[in-house]
Design brief:
By secondary structure, the chain is of the alpha/beta class. The chain is built from ten helices and nine strands. The strands form two sheets. It has a five-stranded parallel β-sheet with strand order 7-6-5-8-9, with helices on one face. The chain has a four-stranded parallel β-sheet with strand order 2-1-3-4, sandwiched between helices. 41% of the residues are buried.
Length: 306
């Protein structure tokens, strides 16, 4: 039995196999429509989510399986003081696999230590968001044709953004990837990411404040929102939330084949006028998220489809 706590839980070879499976699901959905008949997915979401929770539910339904769970801690026995360990022990009696989102870093890891079913980390605090990373990798590989030889700009909240942290860790394993970190001083990428992930492997990166200065060189621009829920100070949030807004004027500076990604939800960091640009990939990214979660469920449940 395997769990998914981090994108690094899969080797590069295993990731390639997972992404190949996701591509096959995209091309031949009917082949997988009953692959999980009789299987049940529990979605344990201790904090709000739209895309991730519904994407998991859509993935399991597309595989012919069933879903149940809760969408907030207030609607679970956590409100009565039940521990994560006790909850997963109980859920293990009902479900075949579990997706858990929790505001506390490491909570899904605690659950996996006592669970008798596979546990998928669907986001834990500002730490990891591995299934979003798998979605991002599938999007990049599908639209650019590769996961190496890329210049990737990550813009916005790089300090608290767990999607950014997970993606950097995953892409750092591929050849000739250069990172450009675009953020205000207060939201810079954490030093441990730079030191432990990049500098230790001699992976090139730059830190800049102005998005306009680097647009022409990017193959991928990964936008993020400034997350109100990660701030302790409302004044700081209000001051920084509009620091970067991507619009058509800035898009004119970019390569014709650059793609714009965003883990969503978007607030106002990407103007709606950009949605019509063929380089805007963030809604296609959502669809890729369903395919990759279908592939992940099949992999962790060890379901083979011929």
């Amino acid at each position: 039995m395997r769990h998914l706590m981090s994108p690094l839980d899969f080797s590069v070879e295993e990731l390639d196999q997972l992404l190949d499976l996701a591509n096959d699901i995209e091309k031949h959905p009917d082949k997988y429509a009953h692959a999980c008949n009789g299987k049940k997915l529990a979605t344990l979401f201790y904090e709000p989510s739209t895309r991730t929770r519904l994407s998991f539910e859509a993935a399991m339904m597309n595989l012919g399986g069933n879903i149940f769970g809760f969408s907030s801690a207030a609607s679970s026995s956590a409100a009565k003081g039940e521990s994560v360990s006790d909850t997963i022990r109980m859920i293990s009696c009902y479900a075949d696999i579990c997706a858990m989102r929790h505001p506390k870093e490491g909570a899904p890891m605690v659950a996996s230590a006592v669970s008798s079913i596979p546990v998928i980390n669907a986001g834990d605090g500002g730490h990891q968001h591995p299934t979003q990373t798998l979605t991002d990798l599938l999007t990049i590989r599908s639209l650019k044709g590769r996961l190496n030889h890329l210049v990737i700009g990550l813009c916005g909240d790089l300090k608290f953004g767990r999607t950014v942290h997970s993606l950097v860790r995953a892409l750092a394993r591929y050849e000739n990837v250069t990172f450009v970190f675009i953020s205000p001083e207060e939201l810079k990428i954490p030093s441990y990411i730079k030191e432990d992930v990049l500098e230790s492997r001699h992976i090139p990166y730059r830190e800049v404040e102005r998005i306009e200065d680097v647009m022409p060189e990017l193959d991928i621009l990964y936008m993020t929102r400034v997350q109100r829920e990660r701030f302790f100070n409302e004044e700081d949030y209000v001051r920084l939330k509009d620091f970067y807004i991507l619009n058509n004027k800035k898009m004119k500076l970019a390569k014709e084949d650059m793609i714009v990604m965003h883990p969503l939800p978007r607030v106002n960091e990407i103007s709606v006028e950009v949605d019509k640009d063929p380089r805007a990939a963030y809604f296609r990214q959502v669809q890729y998220g369903v395919y990759v979660r279908m592939a992940l469920i099949l992999t962790l449940l060890e379901v083979k489809v011929c």
